[in-house]
Design a protein that fits this description.
about 140 residues, mainly beta, 6-stranded mixed sheet, 13 strands
Length: about 140
């Protein structure tokens, strides 16, 4: 099975309607679990060990993240544990269309690799993701550093 661990991708965070925890860790407010993402087709949460920097994800913001691990790979009920890297402006996010990417599929997970050699942050439109059958997760690789 192909792993998505270590892949960098762009996600959009939003407020979790039912935050868990609260309080502080080492005097700093907990920020994990009150923000989640469903950009990857499964729930994604910020790693509890992630240390906030000057900028932290907020509701409605796009972020480049690294996938640290996945619980229950190949199953719809799993969770992606993410480490935010940097914010991405809305205008920097481009939508992929069919023919603009290669895809590898393995046990319910599709890994999308953009064909274009441009420094964009790519996402798959929701309508295209929903058209993929028997898919639990869709990860679009970020290739540039």
């Amino acid at each position: 099975m192909k792993t998505v661990t270590g892949i960098r991708t762009v996600v959009k965070f939003f407020n979790n309607g039912q935050p868990q925890g609260g309080g502080t860790i080492g005097g700093k407010p907990k920020i994990h679990n009150h923000l989640i993402t469903r950009t990857l087709g499964k729930l994604g949460v910020i790693d509890s060990k992630w240390e906030p920097t000057d900028e932290s994800p907020k509701d409605g913001t796009f972020w480049l993240v690294e996938i640290l691990r996945e619980t229950s790979p190949s199953k719809a009920q799993g969770v992606f544990v993410l480490a935010p890297i940097r914010p991405v402006e809305v205008g920097e996010v481009q939508k992929l269309s069919p023919g603009m990417y290669d895809e590898e599929s393995d046990e319910g997970t599709v890994i999308i690799t953009p064909k274009l050699r441009e420094d964009f942050y790519w996402m798959l439109p929701l309508s295209l993701r929903k058209s993929m059958t028997n898919v639990n997760a869709v990860v679009v690789k970020y290739l540039w550093e």
